[in-house]
Amino acid sequence: MLASTIHSPGAALCPSPVPLLRRADDRSLRREIEARALHRVRAGVYAPAEDWARLPPWHKYLARIHALALKRPSAIFTHESAAALLGLPVLGDLRTLHVLVARKGDARRVGDVQGHYALEEPPLITSLGVCATTALATVVDLARNRHPAYALAAADALLHSGAASREHLLIANESRQSGRGRATAAWPLERATADAESVLESVSRAAIEWLGFPAPQLQSRFVIDGAEYRTDFSWPDQQVIGEADGDMKYAIGDAADAVMREKKREDALRRVMRGFARWGWNDLRTPDRLRLMLEAAGLTAPRPRRTAQLHALSLLLNH
Predict the structure, then answer these.
(1) What is 268-313 written as a DSSP string?
(2) What is the pLDDT of residues 273-285, one digit of tens each?
(3) Which of 135, 216, 278, 294 could disulfide-link to 243, CB 3.0 to 4.6 Å?
(4) Are residues 160 and 275 in the same domain?
(5) pLDDT exceeding 90 applies to what percent of the chain?
(6) What does each C-alpha distance from 128 to 14, 15, 69, 218 come to in angstroms?
(7) Portion of the chain with pLDDT greater than 70, in percent
């Protein structure tokens, strides 16, 4: 599972997080390869081994995309690979690279590369010698073809960046020549908001709905004893607050001071609201844990759970 940081989608493509060296360009690399000072990213493309070892999984995925671009300069990246290049979140599979193909018959997987055929030519962005579908087109692709919680996270990230609006997304989806996936895309695109500030918040919103709970208010502000506090989620009607990060807010300076500040913040919020729940990725991977936490905080669910969607979400996050 991956939750990447945001890189102002649409402004430019993200560069490779490590230097990439082509053996064809420098025959002297052989000695470093034999000494294992270089890591093979792709056939004939290497990165400094120490740098590679320090990369988180999503940066390794991005480096692999750039390595393929070096081998195939004409490649046009799409779906998750375009999302990674654009700085949009990527969830789930970090093995497959996604490229557009010119013929429908070539829309198949070869090695770690999956080809996708588009009925109409999508809008493209080129940067750093790499080409990908634009952020707007990429989010619509994800909304039509990927898990709706992931699509919601990508749509939220795009809106939060200010590069597009919900109306832009809905129009882009409706205006495509192909109707395949159009109805499926409506669920995440209609719910997308610029107020979600993290991938975890976006995926939590999907889980909360499928667990049957009412939609929360996002980024609510509370002024208590002259101090202002902001919460990820709140349900004012039920007097419940939710924090979808598992991390301390305003954690600056000494760790012990940060703990005390967070305790003071939470105590203040508990004085004005009846219940308080805090969760992180590990809790969300088993949605029933989130349900129990919200119920323990006093939140009630007026609708039945959507078990199929919750099961699929668990599979996605435990990939």
Answers:
(1) HHHHHSSEEEEE-HHHHTSHHHHHHHHHHTT---SS---HHHHHHH
(2) 789 999 999 999 9
(3) 278
(4) no
(5) 77
(6) 8, 7, 10, 36
(7) 91
- Please give the Cα distance from 317 to 84 (Å, whole number): 17
Distance CA 151, CA 160 (A): 14
Partners of 27 in the β-ladder: none
Write down the pTM of the prediction. 0.89
Q: Read off the DSSP letter of residue 105.
A: G
CA distance 129 to 114: 21
* C-alpha–C-alpha distance, residues 34 and 228, integer Å: 58
Structure tokens at 314: 């668990």
Tens of pLDDT along 53-94?
999 999 999 999 999 999 999 999 999 999 999 999 999 999
Domain extent, residue 280, equals 199-317
pLDDT at 257 over 90: no
Q: SS3 for 64?
A: helix
Give the C-alpha separation, 56 to 316, whole Å. 19
- 3-state DSSP: the chain helix, strand, coil percent, rounded to 5? 45, 20, 35
Q: Assess if residue 75 is contained within a domain.
A: yes
Residue 283 belongs to some domain of the structure: yes
In this predicted structure, what is the pLDDT of residue 248?
44
